[in-house]
Amino acid sequence: MNVQSKDGVALEAQMFALGRAARESATHLREASTAVKNKALISAADAIRARQNAILAANDEDMRAAASRNLGPAMMDRLKLDAKRVEAMAKGVADVAALADPIGRELARWKRPNGLDIARVATPIGVLGIIYESRPNVTADAGALCLKSGNAVILRGGSESFHSSRAIHEALVEGLETAGLPAASIQLVPTIDRAAVGFMLEGLGGALDMIVPRGGKSLVARVQKEARVPVLAHLEGICHTYVHEKADLNKARALVLNGKMRRTGICGATETMLIDRSILATHLKTILDDLTKAGCEIRADAAVRELYAGAKPATEEDWRTEYLDAIIAVRTVDGVEQAIDHIATYGSQHTESIVTEDKVAAERFLSALDSAIVMHNASTQFADGAEFGMGAEIGIGTGKLHARGPVGVEQLTIFKYVVRGTGQTRP
Fold first, then answer.
1. Neighbours of 417 (CB within 10 A)
2. Measured in Å, how far apart are the chain's first and last C-alpha atoms?
3. Whether residue 257 sits in one domain with residue 214
4. 165: CB partners within 8 A, 6+ apart
5. pTM, whole model, 2 decimals?
6. pLDDT tens digit string along 243-283?
7. Domain range for residue 360?
């Protein structure tokens, strides 16, 4: 594999060859049985476990390089693998094998007065291009989900995770070959040359049917601006936890702390806490003390700062910032309608949670917001395909077309209409 290509012509030829191989593999995957796909996935999970030492050694190489580039703590956390995370990857791949096959599902069926029998049936999209940054586990998640949904995929991981992704990809290819499927069903772009992304965004000569970016704001914005093929993406995860006046204090403490601090670098992390003015005296200090003790910086409005001296002033920009770090913005609101208005104004339509024992307020919050995921008395960190029972996810869709929320195997399908007749002609 080439770590870097300096010849644009050679790189273009290499990328187009990946596209052709993927398109050819897609025709085989479309017809692959559930048993064959599952065999490939289970074998890949076994290969990830068997190759743990090699994967961790490759990750060590990436971590050393990242440290020399002074990457931030959140980025380093997303990049790092250990035995527990490798096992979680393997389990995620095996969990995808255990899911129902989404291909061939009859989504709807009806009969016309003229006797035509019409069915809407789930089919693979075809060839996907997935562009992602530091998380090497995306290599396993994306490869597994695309395989189960019958799609060929070209993966372009970030330069910081190049060696880790390559080691994981080798395990996926072992699984494919064990099941007799084309190795090109899951391909990894073999270069860190940024020009490779440009060729993918152009569609590789018509080979790609969809691009899925997973990464920071600049990556997703570039993909959405330059892509010449459909894009399935979310731009930011500005997630909110709203502590309503009827919130149970212990629940509020646990949910805010977990929502913000369990892993600060994931898109489901709470970035803004909203709290009703009527409970500032009873709830605020305890909740913020928990965050402060955990190492979280508080940026807050004037009402919060009057009661909590350790908070720094929040600016207008804080309400619309995805920190991906141990920082939280805290704002006072006067009831559920003001909380809904704040989220609609500043949010990114990702994930929002209300903490309350008032079912009427909860239902108003859940129904009024247009975010992809809305929650009641649950941590925003559950915004995850595995936690939804999907085995894994490629990302969280926040757009309005094709898929919203965790993008799992069902969301990586499209459909066709199957029409059965008995000789009907149209008058």
1. 9
2. 60
3. no
4. 136, 139, 155, 157, 188
5. 0.84
6. 999 999 999 999 999 999 999 988 999 999 999 999 999 99
7. 239-382
